[in-house]
């Protein structure tokens, strides 16, 4: 009898302490069926019925996080406490914001991505987390039509290609300020803490009418977080099997009643020389880098803008023969390429205290580089100051933007081509009118005038047309011109490294380009509940006076001159962004392009430009187990490679190659994420199928070179089209306190 009483008491105790959760799931006032509802860190869950109702039975007393998720709708989380009564929890899920992000880069105004007459691609911090990298340069490897190009086997510096155009044709902005250019085109895309990035906006096509001569092929705008939107404290660190260590730290705080401060720092270290391909040269450049970033946001009357930001960056990197150390720096005994970079940036924006919306933006950068390539020193300084006033005015169906800007550029280096410091101030005027013809048709007219004392008057017009037949369809046409002044040694790393002589045959004329881009954006809803975003583009760019390096005429020289003919870049690209099931997201992109030069009637493909590329990022989220699986990768078609003439045994064209990565993330702990995975799953490196990568690696100073023997190749580390780093595991942790 006693055991029977104990049994009934146990049943009664369970009944008292185990309660039920009931509720409804709705969206926009209507019932939303088939929503997944579950309690985090438990096995308990349910699926809502046709009328949106759900019930989870027998929940023990305690505090829980309850989560509701459904394909095409934003996931919601709520904290509930179970005691002695049943709990009622209702969810109102808004639709997913797929294709509806706010963008500012295309027109210098904050608008919905679907409303912008200029196509803008947007990538969030969640995209960067799918394949964690120590810098923005590597993070862009999974963006369709954008390729980080490594330009040197030894020091591993590179630039960003957009739609087949070389890195100098792409302008890189931070918070809308053009502070990554010249020297930093090659060396400055590192050290921006990824944890501080709000989003990355990419414009493919001409943007010179708003941003000046460097935005010929497109631009990348890295937008940092507002202090009020950042976590109170965050930390993100990971290490790889090669010995790479990356650390991001940051915090935000209030300073008085009028200011918010955001601080972040990035540290990266790699000090483990590896030579897997056996040429006695480092496969990956050794690096020691630190960057500190600070951003202030000030509260003003009528919500007027005022923010200041600054960043300091220092890096020591070297690559070369495995026995190299700093005592050999600049000598001709052991080959090494050593680069010390010191750089600081300051930028801000201030809205004038007046009725009209007038904004003043400004930036200043100071970049100092002390480097040697073997026994060739390259000492360079660049200072860039930029100021810009914009007036934003709306009149009936006209959305007007007027601007006046000035750019100060100082550049000096130790090369024979630079006789004295180059110092110039370029004033600019620009105007833009976005005309809303009706609900479906919009036209944008823009023009920019620059005066460069070296080249006189520069005029770059722009026109865009947007047709929006439905709320989920948009068709755009953009056309414009570009103008660019070239500095060989800040943009072409091959001019400094290796043993080839640099020949400039004439005074180089500025390049000009004419570009047209057609874009179609569409959002699909399937009967199964999936949402698919389609973003398709076609483009055509025609260059005159193109300046390119000639590697073919003489294997011992790199010859620079203006192309006596034309250069054409054309292609098509497609992106598919889909939410196809609860917890399943896929982003797939492909680009097919033809980049060629025609001189004296002979057409030739551009060196180091792929015929096609594909990228993907697939994610599966198991809410039940708090796990996310990310599979990312890219694939590249053949590209013509810079060989040393007909006697060079290395491949003349690259094979089909792919870099693929996989990652597993666990977020079941409060404020913590634990992640790990494998990079370069296929263990692909450029030495596959090649007799060697670096020509004459055994005699990098060409001390025994027979110049009369064409089969005796000189030292050349510029034969590179992908990373030399093979397969490696990584493991990391994130902590974020809101």
Features:
mainly beta, 6 helices, five-stranded mixed beta sheet, 22-stranded antiparallel barrel, globular
Kindly describe this structure:
- It contains six helices and 44 strands.
- With 738 residues, the chain is mainly beta.
- The strands form seven sheets. The protein has a 22-stranded antiparallel barrel. Strands 1, 2, 5, 8 and 9 form a five-stranded mixed beta sheet that branches.
- The longest helix is centred in the first third of the chain and has 16 residues.
- It is globular, with a radius of gyration of 28 Å.
- It starts with a helix and ends with a strand.
- About 1% of the residues have low confidence.
- It is found in: Cell outer membrane.
- This is TonB-dependent receptor.
- Pfam families: CarbopepD_reg_2, Plug, TonB_dep_Rec_b-barrel.
């Amino acid at each position: 009898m006693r055991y029977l009483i104990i049994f009934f008491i146990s049943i009664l105790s369970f009944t008292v302490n185990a309660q039920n959760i009931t509720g409804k799931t709705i969206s926009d006032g209507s019932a939303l069926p088939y929503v997944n509802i579950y309690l985090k860190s438990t096995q308990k869950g349910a699926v809502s019925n046709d009328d949106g109702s759900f019930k989870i039975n027998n929940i023990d007393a305690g505090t829980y996080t309850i989560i509701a998720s459904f394909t095409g709708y934003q996931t919601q989380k709520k904290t509930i406490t179970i005691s002695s009564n049943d709990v009622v929890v209702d969810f109102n899920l808004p639709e997913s914001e797929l294709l509806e992000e706010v963008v500012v880069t295309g027109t210098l105004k904050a608008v919905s991505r679907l409303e912008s007459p200029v196509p803008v691609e947007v990538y969030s911090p969640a995209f960067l987390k799918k394949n964690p990298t120590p810098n923005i340069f590597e993070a862009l490897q999974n963006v369709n039509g954008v390729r980080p190009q490594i330009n040197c086997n030894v020091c591993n510096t590179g630039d960003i290609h957009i739609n087949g155009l070389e890195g100098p044709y792409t302008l890189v902005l931070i918070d809308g300020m053009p502070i990554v250019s010249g020297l930093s085109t090659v060396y400055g895309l590192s050290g921006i803490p990824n944890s501080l990035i709000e989003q990355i906006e990419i414009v493919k096509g001409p943007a010179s009418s708003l941003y000046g001569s460097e935005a010929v092929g497109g631009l990348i705008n890295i937008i940092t977080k507002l202090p009020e939107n950042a976590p109170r404290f965050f930390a993100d660190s990971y290490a790889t099997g090669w010995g790479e260590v990356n650390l991001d730290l940051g915090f935000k705080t209030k300073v008085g009643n009028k200011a918010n401060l955001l601080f972040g720092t990035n540290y990266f270290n790699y000090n483990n020389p590896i030579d897997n391909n056996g040429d006695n040269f480092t496969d990956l450049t050794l690096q020691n880098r630190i960057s500190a970033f600070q951003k202030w946001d000030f509260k003003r009357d009528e919500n007027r803008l005022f923010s200041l930001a600054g960043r300091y960056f220092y890096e020591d990197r070297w690559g070369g023969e495995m026995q190299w150390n700093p005592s050999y720096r600049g000598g001709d005994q052991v080959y090494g390429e050593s680069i010390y970079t010191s750089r600081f940036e300051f930028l801000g924006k201030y809205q004038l205290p007046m009725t009209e919306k007038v904004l003043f933006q400004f930036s200043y950068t100071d970049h100092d580089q002390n480097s040697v390539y073997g026994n060739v020193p390259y000492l360079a300084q660049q200072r860039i100051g930029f100021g810009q006033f914009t007036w934003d005015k709306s009149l009936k169906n006209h959305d007007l933007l007027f601007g006046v800007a000035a750019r100060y550029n100082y550049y000096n280096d130790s090369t024979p081509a630079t006789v004295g410091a180059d110092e110039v101030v370029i004033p600019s005027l620009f105007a833009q009118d976005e005309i809303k013809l009706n609900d479906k048709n919009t036209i944008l007219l823009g023009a920019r005038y620059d005066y460069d004392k070296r080249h006189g008057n520069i005029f770059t017009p722009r026109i865009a047309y947007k047709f929006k037949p439905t709320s989920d369809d948009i068709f755009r046409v953009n056309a414009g011109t570009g103008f660019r002044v070239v500095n060989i040694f800040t943009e072409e790393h091959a001019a400094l490294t290796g043993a080839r002589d640099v020949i400039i045959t004439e005074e180089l004329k500025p390049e000009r380009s004419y570009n047209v881009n057609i874009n179609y954006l569409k959002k699909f809803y399937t009967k199964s509940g999936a949402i698919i975003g389609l973003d398709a583009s076609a483009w055509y760019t025609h260059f005159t006076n193109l300046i390119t390096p000639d590697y073919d005429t003489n294997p011992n020289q790199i010859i620079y001159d203006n192309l006596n003919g034309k250069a054409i870049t054309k292609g098509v690209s497609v992106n598919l962004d889909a939410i196809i099931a609860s917890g399943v997201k896929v982003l797939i992109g492909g680009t097919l392009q033809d980049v060629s030069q025609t001189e004296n009637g002979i057409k030739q493909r551009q060196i180091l430009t792929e015929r096609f590329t594909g990228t993907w990022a697939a994610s599966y989220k198991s809410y039940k187990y708090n796990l996310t699986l990310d599979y990312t990768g890219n694939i590249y078609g053949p590209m013509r490679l810079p060989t040393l003439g007909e006697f060079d045994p290395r491949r003349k064209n690259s094979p089909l190659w792919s870099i693929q990565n996989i990652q597993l993330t666990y977020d079941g702990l409060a404020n913590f994420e634990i992640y790990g995975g494998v990079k370069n799953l296929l263990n692909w490196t450029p030495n596959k199928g090649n007799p060697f990568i670096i020509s004459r690696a055994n005699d990098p100073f060409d001390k025994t070179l027979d110049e009369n023997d064409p089969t005796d190749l000189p030292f050349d580390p510029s034969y590179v089209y992908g990373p030399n780093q093979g397969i490696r595991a990584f493991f990391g942790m994130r902590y974020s306190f809101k």
